[in-house]
Give the backbone structure.
Amino acid sequence: MEIDGIISAIVIGIVIGVVGRLVVPGRQRIGILLTIVVGIVAALIGSAIAGAFDVADTKGLDWIEWLIQIGLAAVGVAALDRSRGRR
C-alpha cells in the first residue's frame, strides 16, 4: 500500500467509522473520537484485505472494498461497545 492509499484510507476511515456506527443497532456507549479511530483502522485493514484479493483494482468506486471496510467498522464498534459493559 502506497502513501496515497494510506492517506485516503485515513480520510475515508472517518466516514467508514460513522457509517459503521450507524449499521450497529441500538445505542453505543463509545465516543465519536473512538468511532473515528475504529473507522480508520477498519479502512486500513479493509484496504489491505481488498488489495490481497485484487478487488481494489477497478475504475470508480470499489464497492466490495467499501463493504469490507464498513463491515469491519461495524464489528469494531460493536466489540468496543460490548467491552465497555453496562454502567
Observations:
- The chain has a mean pLDDT of 83.
- The chain has one domain: 3-84.
